[in-house]
Amino acid sequence: xxxxxxxxxxxxxxxxxxxxxxxxxxxxxxxxxxxxxxxxxxxxxxxxxxxxxxxxxxxxxxxxxxxxxxxxxxxxxxxxxxxxxxxxxxxxxxxxxxxxxxxxxxxxxxxxxxxxxxxxxxxxxxxxxxxxxxx
Amino acid sequence: xxxxxxxxxxxxxxxxxxxxxxxxxxxxxxxxxxxxxxxxxxxxxxxxxxxxxxxxxxxxxxxxxxxxxxxxxxxxxxxxxxxxxxxxxxxxxxxxxxxxxxxxxxxxxxxxxxxxxxxxxxxxxxxxxxxxxxxxxxxxxxxxxxxxxxxxxxxxxxxxxxxxxxxxxxxxxxxxxxxxxxxxxxxxxxxxxxxxxxxxxxxxxxxxxxxxxxxxxxxxxxxxxxxxxxxxxxxxxxxxxxxxxxxxxxxxxxxxxxxxxxxxxxxxxxxxxxxxxxxxxxxxxxxxxxxxxxxxxxxxxxxxxxxxxxxxxxxxxxxxxxxxxxxxxxxxxxxxxxxxxxxxxxxxxxxxxxxxxxxxxxxxxxxxxxxxxxxxxxxxxxxxxxxxxxxxxxxxxxxxxxxxxxxxxxxxxxxxxxxxxxxxxxxxxxxxxxxxxxxxxxxxxxxxxxxxxxxxxxxxxxxxxxxxxxxxxxxxxxxxxxxxxxxxxxxxxxxxxxxxxxxxxxxxxxxxxxxxxxxxxxxxxxxxxxxxxxxxxxxxxxxxxxxxxxxxxxxxxxxxxxxxxxxxxxxxxxxxxxxxxxxxxxxxxxxxxxxxxxxxxxxxxxxxxxxxxxxxxxxxxxxxxxxxxxxxxxxxxxxxxxxxxxxxxxxxxxxxxxxxxxxxxxxxxxxxxxxxxxx
Lengths: 135, 679
What we know:
The structure holds two protein chains of two kinds.
Chain A: E1 6-11, H1 15-24, E2 33-38, H2 46-54, E3 59-64, H3 75-92, E4 100-104, H4 110-125, H5 130-133
Parallel strand pairs in A: 1-2, 1-3, 3-4
Chain B: H1 8-11, E1 16-21, H2 33-40, E2 46-52, H3 58-71, E3 75-80, H4 83-96, E4 104-108, H5 110-114, H6 120-138, E5 147-150, E6 155-158, H7 162-173, E7 178-181, E8 196-197, E9 202-203, H8 204-217, E10 221-224, E11 227-235, E12 238-245, H9 260-264, E13 268-271, E14 279-282, E15 284-285, E16 297-298, H10 304-308, H11 313-317, E17 330-336, E18 338-341, E19 345-347, E20 364-366, H12 367-374, E21 395-402, H13 417-432, E22 435-440, H14 450-459, E23 463-466, E24 469-473, E25 485-491, E26 496-502, E27 504-509, E28 511-513, H15 517-524, E29 551-553, H16 563-583, E30 585-588, E31 593-595, H17 605-609, E32 615-618, E33 623-626, H18 636-640, E34 646-648, H19 653-678
Parallel strand pairs in B: 1-2, 1-3, 3-4, 6-7, 6-18, 7-10, 18-29, 20-27, 21-22, 21-27, 22-23
Antiparallel strand pairs in B: 5-30, 8-9, 11-12, 12-17, 13-14, 15-16, 19-28, 24-25, 25-26, 31-34, 32-33
Helix pairs in contact in B: 2-6, 3-4, 6-19, 7-8, 7-16, 12-13, 13-14
């Protein structure tokens, strides 16, 4: 049984701080997801996500500010439009779109953050390793 | 992707130093930091790898500085806490040793590993993966020079309560100009409504109004009451603020504040703002006699002229002829360098606790109503009487924690209610001689001279019942209860249920964030907590700054607070702003977007998605170009650029991919090892 390998792209202002909040509240969650900090979820180009799958990630998380809360006012509007299209593209390429997870987590939502990580890790654990599905 | 395109090795061999922090036992208690440091020594480009008790201490920082100089490090990675906390600390340490601060990277192994992982082995593996990610990333980082921009010395203060007044006066006294924007017709805030202040029992108006007058007369303060901020643009040092100055229908230049208009106006309106619904005002009014500024406003909704088209009594009698029915809202645009939000709180709506009967039982009062009742300038001239306006109560019950420390409403403690309840007990005693009961969950009388006040009220004979009141009712069971209010409570010290008959009940209602705090936060680019209070940059070490540079918070908009704490925060926010102003110039984000003009096809996708209009199209060369002073470094353009010719400094594709690969490779290596072990 291999442990799922997950990369999370988190915006600096809301979700990364939500992750810090989970830490400060000492909430426990599985260690599979490794965070790559970006200034805004709008920075996450589809290519970055695809490149992460190519490297063998079993799941990719994109977490940003809630709509209306974006530190850059409308950066996350782009994420909200871009990521569903990327999911379609994944599906078209034969990749289970469920492996890409998009959600909004604010700086105050440590508890939500820990919950989201727990749920997604369990979901990915139930799927076969990504690289095996590509053989 | 461009991760293969450029190798930093060609330019200069990276020499990385790795420093793993124990953070006392915070990290070392869960993560095997010695193992992480040893393991990291074998990562590519790593010249030295050490662990230390507290990397953020001066000794820890000196360790880094010494290694940079002696070992010729040109990249530094610290694996410790969140970069939100100590990235600036270590960037400064690098800078002192002559290394560009952007050649530093942090791995967050405290908040993201030690504090959230139970299994020590797994925690150590995750710490290694994050450290490897940072080592992999840092090799590709490039030196950047921060852009310096001048700071506009003007300041915007939003909210004219005691916190905003204090902040405005401090800044104005230092010589900078302040725009003080207040939504109501006068400054003064909640404090202007209070009668006495705890624990000294100073008259609230006596200590507040001199400050209000100072604001009104200060040569460095532009006071904009009856006004609201509509929009905020720009960044620290250079904000442009759009303010709507609502029409007062009174010419401020000629009005003398004589008050004749208010006397002559035939329309009486219940004043549910300043008098908390207990008193009346006219349709043209100043909220209270000491209002600053002292010129009135016409309340359009209730003015007979605006409703029926006739009356104009105020205009007829106004001695200087200052009434202007045709006045329009003005939209002002002001430039400021810093902003302080001091927007205060709303009182918890006690109607929500239906078992306490507020709004149904006439002699149940809220704390704010009682403040007006006992105020000598209030509707009863300071007489404590029942809702009928004449009967003095013989027994009064004061209920603490209404809407606070209550799962059904707000979980938090509203801080001020215990002391407020004690103050009310003292005032009722003094004015009526009635029996006073205080119903409390816990007495919280921290801070200077507060507990002494509690002792004093105890000695005065106030009765204290520990227990959460179940119900306030007028349904009498006994002859002696008829016509009175009965408080049903479990006395948890005596261990029995009690029914206590009183004539008046005062609900010490809690404090809540303003109903529109979320909207205001969005306007100023800051965040709200789950309870809708504005979030400070750090709960202990940076209580008045926010995540947005140049936007500060003070007073109860940040959380429940009493007057001394609000004044302290107002002054603290002012000091922070003054320190920025005195720097004259400020460094702004160096991590801005940049267009590789060679590859740009001029599709203008980036221009469409930029939230700041920071990218323009240079028509004669058909290329996009970024204005670095306007760019805030979100990178949304990078996500949109199809030919991948726009990049974000410090968050380049190469750097992010390197970071991702660093983490992935470590995870894969551990997977391979555990597969071997199983085999």
